[in-house]
Design brief:
Elements: E1 15-20, E2 28-31, E3 40-42, H1 45-52, E4 59-64, E5 69-70, E6 80-81, H2 82-93, E7 117-119, E8 125-126, E9 162-164, H3 167-173, E10 177-179, E11 212-213, H4 224-232, E12 259-260
The chain binds zinc ion.
The site of zinc ion (ZN) has 7 residues, from helix 2.
Length: 267
Amino acid sequence: MLAGYFTNYNATVSFTVNSSNIGGGFLASAWSNPFNSAFGFSPTVVQNLILTGNGTSDGKISFNFVHPWDYDDDVAVDAFDFKSTAIHEMLHALGFLSALNDSGQGLHRNASGQPDTWLMYDQFLVDNSNTALIDGAFAFKTGLLSTLTGGSQGGVYAGNVVFFNGAFASAALGQNVPIFSPDPWDLGSSVHHTDDTFFNGIGHPVLIMNAATDPGAQVRSLSATEIGMLRDIGYADIIPEPTSWSLLLVLAAFGAAMWPRRFVRRA
Ligand SMILES: [Zn+2]
């Protein structure tokens, strides 16, 4: 289903898939290492493999089996949509992923304000004044640290969240894309996702790259906004309407119980 969006790429992507069985709201996580370790913005290794056809992939996904999953297309109301979550996790490995932590550090964990290595996605992160969080010397702008926890307070869209300002994504949405940046910082979820309080199924459709999901059938298709984000991070040959499968459009109503669908940072 996911590959149907990508055209003119010839790559076989492999994932190491692990299982866990731990309590709490954690559903699944994913990771792919940066391809370059130099200061700057790097594709993930999986992303580099797809874009260049060269290299090996090191995508990793972990699913938490303490929760009930439903694997087919008729998802029970009290189980989680495995296909939706698998697409979500694979997209993290493909580069829908940030290197930023809550201290303004990148992958090398150099002090905030010092040059560091980031992922492609990070070059488009801005505040609500469209000011980039990372400067031209690849250093986080320490004065903007409060932006990382500026939004989504009490589950209400605050408008001073982190945004993604890539040209394709912003054109698709009609504004910069609100990024999940709650207060307090949500380790493994903050910055890596579209903002659940903005894309809440009321004013704007729920997106597959939101941080949390409800049980039951969920979105399995990419929105024009997410396709724009993928184009911005380097996937020039991605099409809005895959031809290999039928779009399943689900307007999910968010209930009170939200289950974080997280990515966990791995070295
Ligand atoms: Zn995620």
